[in-house]
Amino acid sequence: MPSYLSRPLTVLGLLFLSHACYSAYEHSTLLTPSPQSSTIASTSTSSPPTASLPLDISLETIISVIMICVGLVVGAEELKPIMWRVWAGKVERESGGGGPFQGLEDRLGFVDIRAKRKEFADWVRDQDNDKK
């Protein structure tokens, strides 16, 4: 299917979908009781009538959704193959050699708590020696 048909197909599908929604709304309003009959219905033991949507409204909804999906898929851009090395090379060239994972490569490793504690103790001793 040519791509120039995608927009009209999508618009037509949206038009049919809006008509199906309006038809479903109208169908539901026909089933609700009027205010005058609500007093009569409250005295009777029968429950309010419930019915499912007619088949033509359901089919119109399904067909319109399919039309919208086909229109959107046909009008989409051509998919491009994804190759990791090509993508990473392109990103490195664009970012000046940094690469997408430069932050992960430059991060510090685990902190050695014992070494940090020793450095702090040495610093405190040096501070005490400087005060004397």
Entry summary:
The chain has six helices and no strands. It has helices spanning 6-31, 35-43, 55-74, 84-95, 102-106, 113-131.
Describe the structure.
The chain is mainly α and 132 residues long. The chain folds into 2 domains: 3-74; 84-131, no CATH class. Helices cover 69% and strands 0% of the residues. The chain has helices spanning 6-31, 35-43, 55-74, 84-95, 102-106, 113-131. The radius of gyration is 35 Å and the shape is elongated. The mean pLDDT is 82.
Describe how the helices and strands are arranged.
Elements lengths: L5 H26 L3 H9 L11 H20 L9 H12 L6 H5 L6 H19 L1
% residues in beta strands: under 5%
> How many helical stretches?
6
Largest sheet: none
Average pLDDT, to the nearest integer?
Answer: 82
Q: Name the shape in a single word.
A: elongated
Helix content: 55-70%
Number of strands: 0
Distance between the termini: 89 Å
Q: Please trace the helix and strand order, writing H or E for each element.
A: HHHHHH
* Low-pLDDT segments: none
Structural class, by secondary structure, is mainly alpha
Q: What's the structural domain tally? A: 2
Radius of gyration: 35 Å
Family: Belongs to the membrane magnesium transporter (TC 1.A.67) family.
Keywords: Membrane, Signal, Transmembrane, Transmembrane helix
InterPro entries: EMC_subunit (IPR053279), MMgT (IPR018937)
Signal peptide: 1-23
Which characteristics define this entry?
132 residues, mainly alpha, 2 domains, 6 helices, elongated, Magnesium transporter
